[in-house]
Specification:
Distance between the termini: 35 Å
Protein name: Cytidine deaminase
CATH class: Alpha Beta
Number of helices: 5
Enzyme class: hydrolase
CATH topology: Cytidine Deaminase, domain 2
Active site: 74
Largest sheet: 5 strands, mixed
Oligomer: single chain
Strand content: 15-25%
Order of helices and strands: HHEEHEHEEH
Number of domains: 1
Helix content: 25-40%
Function: This enzyme scavenges exogenous and endogenous cytidine and 2'-deoxycytidine for UMP synthesis.
CATH superfamily: Cytidine Deaminase, domain 2
Binding site for substrate: 61-67
Number of strands: 5
C-alpha cells in the first residue's frame, strides 16, 4: 500500500503531504500512545493530528473509573489543537499496537465539526495500516448547521 498516494488522493492537489511528513505523523501517533492512561481497558491509543501549517498535535486516551469520563486519543488531539486556536486540519493518524483503532462515534461526531468528507484518517497497528476517508466512518453526522 502506498500511504502517501492514498492520503494525497483524498486531500486533492491543494495540500500535498510528502512521505517523510506522513512517517513523522505516524511516529508521533505511536509515541503518543506511550502516554496513554488506560489501566482499565489496557488499550493504549495514540493520535497525531497534522495541522495545515504542517505541525503535529499529539493525543492519547485517558481513562477514568467512571467510563463516561474517559476521553479518546483523537478527541484529546483535536481539543488540544482547538484550544490553541487551530481550525485547519490535514490528516489524522491513530495507533494501537495490537489492532486497528477505529475512532468511536463520539470522536467522529466531534471531528465532523472541523473536517470535510475526504479528511484522511490513517489507522495503524503493528500488523496493518489503512487509510480511510472520514466519510467512510461517519456518513451522516448530526448537525444543526448543514
Amino acid at each position: 500500500m502506498d500511504i502517501e498516494k492514498e492520503v494525497n488522493l483524498l486531500l486533492g492537489s491543494k495540500n500535498k503531504i510528502y512521505k517523510d511528513l506522513i512517517e513523522t505523523l505516524i511516529n508521533e501517533a505511536k509515541n503518543a500512545s506511550m502516554y496513554s492512561y488506560s489501566p482499565y481497558s489496557r488499550f493504549a491509543v495514540g493520535a497525531g493530528l497534522l495541522l495545515e501549517n504542517k505541525s503535529i498535535v499529539q493525543g492519547c486516551n485517558i481513562e477514568n473509573s467512571s467510563y463516561g469520563s474517559t476521553v479518546c486519543a483523537e478527541r484529546v488531539a483535536f481539543f488540544k489543537a482547538l484550544s490553541s486556536g487551530e481550525r485547519s486540519f490535514l490528516c489524522l493518524a491513530v495507533y494501537n499496537k495490537d489492532i486497528l483503532p477505529y475512532p468511536c462515534g463520539c470522536c467522529l461526531q466531534v471531528m465532523s465539526e472541523f473536517v470535510d468528507s475526504n479528511f484522511p484518517i490513517i489507522l495503524i497497528s503493528s500488523k496493518e495500516i489503512r487509510v480511510i476517508p472520514f466519510s467512510d466512518l461517519l456518513r451522516h453526522p448530526f448537525s444543526l448547521h448543514k
